[in-house]
## 1
Amino acid sequence: MPETISIFSPPFHRSINPSEKLWTFWLTDSGQSHVICTPPAANVIKTYSPNLMVHPIMRETPSPSSASTIAAPVVAMLANLHSLVIGPGLGRDDLMQATVAEIIKAAREKGTPLVLDADALWLVQKQPELVRGYKECILTPNVVEFGRLAKAVGVDTGGDTGREGCKALASALGGVMVVRKGLVDWISDGSDQWTVVGDGKGGKKRSGGQGDTLTGSIGTFLAWRKVYLEGSWETEGNMGREETLMLAAFGGSAITRECSRLAFAKRKRSLQASDLTDEVPVAFETLIGEKEESKL
């Protein structure tokens, strides 16, 4: 299977996050999917499905091992991975954050596409140099996380979290793609050409955890993108790195919003984040479809 995803969601009490994201990967046909976590979390996560590939590598404070030592087996896997999604359920434990920092540095060296969300954004807030200028990286902050990131890199958006604010933050980060999720999703790499809005109709309820569908979808599209850019598939057209990065981000936004719309139509106010996951195959077929019947 050419597309392989890896996720970092270590703590036991946050073990639901990788499950939702992995289902999104599978349902959009990502191929192999791995979750990298702590041993206590692994015992829970493995019970979700026999198909899960779980690696209990991560460690929390206190641990006799250094961050670089813990990161080493993950770094060794990078050559076989097509994208990394880091953050959901990660937590802010010092050792965990330091380990992820080591993995991000190694991923940059190897050119591995990244999606950073949740507590990985906390790490970027503390160490923006980890991603600054890395144009194979997509950040998916909500409005609050967006404001923290802007403050961390010295960007005064004047309270603008829309088009201009998103452009300003992405530009300050050296062209990193930013997906500011919200009522509408603003997407930008800091340029006018690649600044768009994801404003497809969604559901009327926002449930915690919906962002996992977004990052899971983007992670899958980034994996496809890498295979496409490597020329491993027979394809039509000749899209470049910037265009395909934007398509991955926009596609994730569109899939998530359609999942929300479909799930709300069925569940109304009882909607939960996991209900979006059930709608991923339908949303994909509705918006994209297979090659012979593609909507694009």
## 2
Amino acid sequence: MARNEEKAQSMLHRFREAQAAELGLGKVRLRRPAYAGSVNTVQEAERWRRDILSEISRKIAKIQDVSLSDYQVRDLNDDINKLMGQKYHWEMRIKELGGADYTRSAPKMINFEGREVPGTRGYKYFGRARDLPGVRELFEKAATDSTQSKPKIEINRALDAEYYGYNEDQAVLLEYEQALEKELIDKLHDAPDTTYVEEKGNKQQQEEENYHNRKKEQNTATAAANGNNVPSQKEIEAYLVERRKQQLLDKYVSEDLKQSEQETKQLTGQI
């Protein structure tokens, strides 16, 4: 194959082809246009698409050769990717001219020959290019990652109806839940409203304390108005401190603590 390519590229061979074309004895080989938009007929666009497909097939077959060096394999793989891009442009041009949509209906065998590295898109590795140093490690790493972490679709695929609570004993379970719910509702109706009783008792106790405080203040004010037992400066200060203390207790201390303090004062005889 290498001998035939060298022969086709030799100066003498190209001269003979040009001479034959001038004499009308040989077939004129046209050069493929670099821009697909320069072609205005579907037949010509399909011709150049077929030409690209044949060139891609030859290069894919050539890249399998074990005698090629790593540099040659890389160059061939780059050429194949460039030709794949040109093929797409010609297919889009054929579609614009009213021809067939090869992006949907054409076989994908050439695309299946190449593999993309996970995480990258657009560049494919064909044949021996997948075994190049640095590329092989990328594919191996992607393979290990895919085996370690299962996709969410595969995890959900293993779940059956029993996981979501649907089983053959569904009717028995519903009957048991309804009976238990009815029992709990009956207990709730029969239980006394302890919250209301506690609130009512606390409110009544607070009203009694407020009444005693107002009564004490009225007695003090009456005594001061009558001129009897006029309090001294120390007694007034002690009264103001006690009043302020009572206001803080009413604001921050809980009802249980105030009740216990009241009982302690009654036992010690401070009231």
## 3
Amino acid sequence: MAAIVRRQVPTRLSRLASPIYRLPQQCIAAPIWLPSTGKTPNPQQITRNFQSSTRRNEKKFTKDHEWIEFNNDKTQGTIGITQFAASALGDVVYVELPTIDLSVSAGDSIGAVESVKSASDIMTPITGKIVATNETLESKPSLINQGPEGEGWIARIEVGEEGKGEIGGLMGAEEYKEFTEEEGAKE
């Protein structure tokens, strides 16, 4: 027999939402008192506004297996290494982060990732200025293995006019997927 969870119901409406009785696969809510009018609303008059956005920031990739995800107006980007690169490196044991306020050109080395297998330079995909680094990687370099395209990001870059012109030379997600499949087939 299913258990019923009950909460004490006030005998009159209060300023807070009334308790909810939870039955298996069913919720029944008592009326809500509106302090501004002093009345209980008609359920047909209650509307809920939910907002959903399918807009995502644009992510681009390089042939060196770095990624950059741009904000909506492409004035800043977040840089990291791809899942493909993290898998090839193995367990990351050390990350050398770039210096903040460092001006860089596309293809410049901004740091390094060392693993039990090898070490690899981190190249910047576009021209700009480093404005932030993921300092958590200094104490937890394994974040790169756990989420190289998420929590394992390496740096944030302020994109200059020259950098905005270089975006077109980077690969999109589908193009990068094809590139890695071809590269995997060569090995």
